[in-house]
Specification:
Elements: H1 2-22, E1 26-31, E2 40-45, H2 82-97, H3 103-106, H4 112-116, E3 118-121, E4 126-129, H5 136-146, H6 158-161, H7 177-186, E5 188-193, H8 196-210, H9 217-230, H10 245-253, H11 259-265, H12 275-279, E6 288-291, H13 295-305, H14 326-333, H15 338-354, H16 361-364
Parallel strand pairs: 4-5, 5-6
Antiparallel strand pairs: 1-2, 3-4
Membrane topology: Single-pass type II membrane protein
Subcellular location: Golgi apparatus membrane
GO molecular function: sulfotransferase activity
Length: 365
Amino acid sequence: MRRHWLLVGACGWVLLILMFVSKFINFSFRIPGDFAGRADMFVWTMPSVTTKLPSVQRPDKEASQPYILSSVSPSVVEPIDWQSVNEKRLELLSTVCRNSSLWNLTHTNVRKFVLDRIFVCDKHKILFCQTPKVGNTQWKKVLIVLNGKFSKVEAIPENLVHDHERNGLPRLSSMTDTEIHQRLNSYFKFFIVRDPFERLISAFKDKFVKNPRFEPWYKHDIAPAIIRKYRKSHHDDSESVGLQFEDFVRYLGDKPGRRHLDRQFGDHIIHWLTYAELCAPCDISYNVVGHHETLEFDAPYILKAAGIADLVSYPNIPPGITRYNRTKVERYFTGISQRDVRRLYAHYQGDFSLFDYQRPAFLLD
């Protein structure tokens, strides 16, 4: 009888131990919300000894080993498998590309304008499509190092990065049709996106407010033309006030009416063109679509997936600095009519849908 009760007691302890351990077996991870604090939940269960974690893969190369990404902050833990995050993004992209109701907003012919945006690294078989105002300068530095012009990104002068005559970065448009098709079909291809409205704010600040690269044509030519056509109230010193964000929004939302101005502005409009117009994501099969909001995790994943993680490093990103800032968006859109915001959203709706950015209801409804 004593042995019986000892056995029951031992079983009870075993059950308590299993209940305690089970609390540490399942882990929930959150990807930082792209919009208004939204968070998508991914659940990863600790694999058994015989189960292998999915690894980062590059086309035509051996699979690399899985890696663990550090958390953004103590309260946010990131998934170990960032490859699955990218796969979900590509699945959504493919689904939206097939949506006939958005076809005109998501599809672009792969013409010279698009090929001009794509930079080539033949040495490591990489194509990078430039999407302005999402941290492209740093990725250009990565490619410059890979092409052998400099040994590390920190050594590259800022004025060289955007000097396409000297930076050693060939554009895909400079190649023959055969060379273009061969690279599009076999190279590792990627680009980066950002919340469409926050990107427009960044473009407005960079080109019409701060203008750090001293590009006078934005303030002296483009801004006055937009003001004359889209400012509601005109007076003698209207243009001296400078372009206001409201003028900019009204211009961007008037797609049919702004075509003449866009032809006049030339390639300078790339800073506010849609991602679909810049990179043709529904017509070119990209391997990775990175997000500016989670760049501290996308950057190491891209380097790993492209097989260059041991050759170059992406510049340090302070935690949280690339996160979506709803307060800033609300501040810039304050006072702008709902009609103008809705017209703006209608023009960029393809980008919102393709890359899983939530409709900004706090501005539209």
